[in-house]
Amino acid sequence: MLTENQFNNPADSGALIPFSLNSAGDDVFLVEADAAGNLLRFADRVEFSVAPEGMTFGRYPDGAGSFDLLRGVTSGGANTTAIPAYGEWVATQFPPGTASSSMALAADPDSDGLSNLLEFAFKLDPLKPDGSPINLQPAAAGTPLQFTFTVRTDVTGLANRIDVSSDLTAWDTTEAAVERLSTVPNADGTATVSVRLRPNPPALQKHARIMISL
Q: How far apart, in whole angstroms, are the C-alpha atoms of residue 55 and residue 52?
């Protein structure tokens, strides 16, 4: 592993050429040379754009796969898993020059209460305040709560879970009190999910939330 400090160290006689990468995007060529500095062959080239804060670009599987956006920075260790779909979404949703902090998974640049991860999962606009992605339905068949939401199904590793609670502090994450009524695929790579609390849930289970993970 090489770092910028190894190229820009005046105390190192081998650091002959100053080197750095542009955080706004750059490309890197790897070539092989002999002891005299004569170029022997081209080995590799990668090009990258600005990375969302807390993330980086690299190969997954480590050192062998395609060059994609990774979940986190792991300098000196094995690369984290890649999430190329999020990188593609960022490239289409955010204009050039957007600060990396605004593109982070946990960021909320439009201040609508939905993080970029949620905007990505529900296919919403991260730069335009959106309403709730949850649509409440009239109570039916004795259930106190029924709702629908539309979530992406075209991204590997993207998952959703319905939690319930009686006090907004302790949450049941097992979905034991939840019944998924239907999952209807849509043409845009999403599915509309219909959910309700079971007809006879514990009396105090009256709050629900959707947990998104990637």
A: 6
Closest CA to 90 of 64, 109, 76, 113: 109
3-class SS of residue 160:
strand
- Do residues 87 and 181 lie in contact, with contact meaning Cβ atoms separated by under 8 Å? no
120 within some domain: no
CA-atom Rg of the chain in angstroms: 23
DSSP category for residue 150: E
Alpha-carbon distance 14 to 35, whole Å?
12
CA distance 85 to 5: 32
pLDDT tens per residue, range 31-58: 888 888 788 888 877 777 788 998 888 8
Residue at a domain's end among 107, 142, 177: 107
